[in-house]
Specification:
It comes from Microtetraspora fusca. This is DUF3560 domain-containing protein. InterPro entries: DUF3560. There is one protein chain. The chain is of the alpha+beta class. The protein has 4 domains: about 10-80, no CATH class; about 90-185; about 200-275; about 285-380, no CATH class. The chain contains 11 helices and 15 strands. It has a 4-stranded mixed beta sheet with strand order 13-10-9-15. The relative contact order is 0.07.
């Protein structure tokens, strides 16, 4: 690898653009160095770190790549801005949805192209074989033997290629379908509720660090940082301390908080719109002991309604029991104590009252229809 010390490479990070490499030219050896250290290449933006937009810089990856470039003789400058906010979450989400639509179109075209090529190859092979009667054996010793064998070998090869092209078509069709469903899956109410819970937990964690500092080990003989509070001293002299955040770290974390608040507002609005469409967001107020919760297509009796979930009999008791599962049924299958499991409210598919589930004369088919109807109602359909 050849490089010159006069060439300066800049690794730049902003929340708006992510982490990019500037100053590199084709063939200068930079790509060969950073490709094994977390960077990728795009014909649109050049060398970059994937998924680095809209967040603070990955200092470990950046420092590792910078040091490798310096070791190779390059002059490297690192410019990181973790404080300035970038695009809004709504803009970022719209960009992701747009790119998903583009992928769906591109993958759909590939699927059509591969499927058409496979079908065409299959049809051409059948046409070449059409002059041979069905079931016609190879006439050994006849003047047509060699031609017949070559045709069969050729047809076998062509059929294999046709099958491979058809498989590619099915693969790209699946990718296209996944891309088409991207936004629907992203905005699924259950998924959105879980995402909001995670974001709220992340927010609480950042607030705690900003208010109380962060914990780390200060080794024996090392001077305590200013304002550090010793929580525990180990036998070897190391100390576990609560260290106040530096001004730069605080500014970066406050930018993270602003982005989390922006994202939380977006997803809460998605849930509000889902409720307006008639989607049911389940909670403890919707269940009491003896009700039946619809879970994995079965109606299972509720043992207890908790703050974030309902308790139901352990699935091993009822997984193949039928559409209506009662506690009494599960207790009969339990050898000693009946074990229970929980269903988070974001995974509840619907609710059936005890009177409906245990109605006299309710057939299996009627129970299945009742479950399907309650699921549709919960989805606002």
């Amino acid at each position: 690898m050849t490089s010159t010390n006069s060439q300066t490479i800049r690794i730049v990070h902003t929340r708006e653009e992510g982490t990019l490499v500037e100053g590199s030219r084709k063939g200068d050896g930079v790509w060969e160095i950073v490709r094994t250290r977390g960077f990728r290449f795009s014909r649109h933006v050049g060398l970059y770190i994937r998924n680095s937009r809209d967040k603070a810089a990955d200092r470990w990856t950046i420092d590792r790549a910078a040091q490798a470039l310096r070791d190779a003789g390059f002059t490297v400058e690192v410019d990181i801005d973790n404080v300035t906010l970038g695009r809004s979450f709504a803009e970022a989400e719209a960009d992701r949805n747009e790119r998903a639509e583009e992928r769906a179109d591109r993958y759909g075209e590939r699927a059509d192209r591969n499927t058409a090529a496979g079908n065409a190859r299959w049809d051409r092979t059948r046409e070449r074989l059409s002059h041979i009667p069905l079931g016609q054996p190879i006439l050994v010793g006849h003047h047509s033997e060699r031609r017949h064998r070559r045709l069969i070998d050729w047809a076998h090869t062509q059929d294999g290629k046709a099958i491979e092209e058809t498989k590619k078509g099915k693969y790209w069709a699946g990718r296209a379908q996944a891309a088409e469903n991207y936004q629907r899956h992203r905005e699924d109410p259950g998924t959105t509720r879980r995402r909001i819970e995670k974001l709220e937990a992340d927010r609480r964690r950042i607030v705690r660090v900003l208010e109380d500092g962060w914990e780390r080990t200060v080794h024996a003989g090392e001077e305590l940082p200013e304002g550090a509070r010793v929580l525990h001293t180990y036998g070897d002299g190391d100390r576990w301390c609560k260290v106040p955040s530096s001004p730069g770290y605080k500014a970066s974390r406050e930018a993270d908080l602003a982005q989390i608040d922006d994202e939380l507002g977006y997803w809460r609005e998605v849930l509000a719109q889902a409720e307006q469409r008639g989607v049911k967001l389940w909670s403890k107020a919707d269940f009491e002991k003896g009700d039946f919760v619809i879970y994995f297509g079965e109606a299972v009796e509720v043992v207890r309604a908790n703050a974030k979930s309902v308790s139901i009999p352990w699935a091993h008791y009822w997984i193949n029991a039928g559409p209506i599962v009662t506690v009494e049924m599960c207790k009969a299958l339990a050898h000693e104590k009946m074990h229970t499991d929980t269903v988070p409210y974001d995974k509840v598919e619907g609710r059936i009252s005890r009177a409906e589930a245990l109605a006299e004369g309710l057939t299996v088919g009627q129970a299945r229809e009742l479950i399907a109807r309650r699921k549709r109602e919960a989805r606002g359909e």
